[in-house]
Write a structure and sequence with these properties.
By secondary structure, this protein is of the alpha+beta class. Helix content is 19%, strand content 37%. The chain has five helices and twelve strands. Strands 3-2-6-9-10-5-4 form a seven-stranded antiparallel beta sheet. It has a three-stranded antiparallel beta sheet with strand order 1-11-12, with no helix packed on it. The protein has a two-stranded antiparallel sheet with strand order 7-8.
């Protein structure tokens, strides 16, 4: 099957996908943010997350991957309904010397355990250290172990149950389509 058609098939059928909004810092101190819908949790004790990223069209490594491999840390920031436009902005291709926090009008916040910045506007930030890296075909697969969670007050209750109507998370479909994971779209069975 044609590679472009196969990609459309996978992206269109494997939905909804969570969005890992990954913030990193380069060895030169430049901040980077990029959304990844090839992202998920793979373990909960300890929490481990997976990110999969291809190269740029010119074959060079994306800044996020390069930064994680160089610094061995990154932050996972959750995307909510109100953050969709800034998230989309950070999905654009910027040269490595551009601070994407400034481009998207976001505020970098210092992490507790890592040098990579957190996105202050995101209600959930997870500080991670690189656990493992593999190249699978033309994709860079990175595993990160969570070191610390930052969760906005009111998102979880005393029993650690998440209130999705307060979090207002979104998932990725295909193309420019996203799905709300709260409100009337919630289905309980």
């Amino acid at each position: 099957m044609d590679e472009d058609l196969l990609s459309k098939l996978v992206l269109g059928l494997i939905v909804p996908r969570p969005i890992g909004w990954i913030s990193t810092i380069s060895k030169e101190g430049i901040y980077n943010i990029a959304p990844f819908s090839f992202f998920n949790a793979v373990c909960d004790e300890p929490p481990v997350f997976i990110i999969s990223a291809g190269d740029r069209d010119d074959g060079s490594m994306k800044d996020t991957v390069e930064n994680i491999l160089e610094t061995e840390v990154f932050a996972v920031n959750l995307v909510t309904e109100k953050l969709l436009l800034p998230m989309k902005k950070t999905g654009e291709e910027f040269p490595p010397h551009v601070d994407e926090f400034k481009e998207a009008g976001l505020t970098p916040e210092e992490g507790s355990d890592i040098k990579a910045p957190l996105i202050k506007e995101s209600p959930v930030n997870i500080e991670c250290k690189l656990l493992d890296y593999k190249k699978i075909y033309d994709m860079h697969v990175l595993l990160g172990e969570a070191l610390r969670f930052h969760i906005e007050s009111g998102i979880i209750d005393e029993a650690f149950k998440v209130d999705y109507n307060k979090l207002k998370p979104v998932g990725r479909l295909a193309g420019d389509l996203y799905v709300k994971a709260f409100g009337e779209s919630l289905i309980k069975i």
